[in-house]
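Troubleshooting: if your tokenizer reports a length mismatch, compare your output against this known-good record of 311 residues.
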Amino acid sequence: MNPALATCLRAATDVPARASVAAWWPRWRDGAAQAATPAAQALLGGFDADRVGWAFASGYQAALRALLPDMPADAVAAFCVTEEAGNRPRDIRTRFTPAADGSVSISGAKRWTTLGPDSSLLLVVGALPGVDDGARVQLKVARVPAGTPGLQLLPMPETRFVPEVPHARVQLDAVAVDAAALLPGDGYERYVKPFRTIEDAHVTLAVLAYLLRETRARGWPSAFAERLCATMIALTEIAASPADAPATHVVLTGALAQAHALYAEAGTLWAQTADDPAAQRWQRDAALFGVAGSARSQRAARAWERLNEGH
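Known-good structure output:
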């Protein structure tokens, strides 16, 4: 039996309300230290959340630790990819310039950096120099601690759903880091591209764990809890699978479809207590589940194409 899920089936269902990252983070950090895997971190963090926003934040932090297993335990991490033009390699204008003293200078701007205003460690995506326009841009990822000279974190307005989770614009003006701060390998193929899959699995795990706690606390049907658990077991297996494998994407697509059906069912259950602030938050935050739906559909289509090659 999955130990983290077993805990979620037995643990007390009363959790404190939290209005800020400062209130959420210490409990997530301490709970994550007891978890054996990032998937377990997502499950336990989601179960401990009093709302979708903190479940999302828990899954996001767990996903970053699945991407980078040596992430410091006390780091509120933020992945800085998206820029004004988007998040595809050709959209990235942030530049990494090697300096004579062996350091690397980073200049550019990012937007919609999740947890950016409260982050202590940023993973910044940028391009190396010497690539002509129109050619394949070689991206790298650099670890940049918050407070590094030349780095500014500028809070963005609250989003209309999960507004508790803040976002930031990130400005980098000749930010100097040691060359060792650059992560090994191609920034897009090794980090940006797989993170989309990793994040989907871990965030969904966390949201379903949140719903499991609410189900137990509110006496919702046991059959609903059983379907939540079955889907979480599938997602835990997916989270441990290679993020670049087409079979992983196919199975993830099916698991996400099951999760969305459960979200719809949860909406019906929440409607029975429509005046409850938790129910109102759920209705407000449900828009989160439709974000990047088109990209997921394209990912699934490409996965099937790869599986069918040569047939």
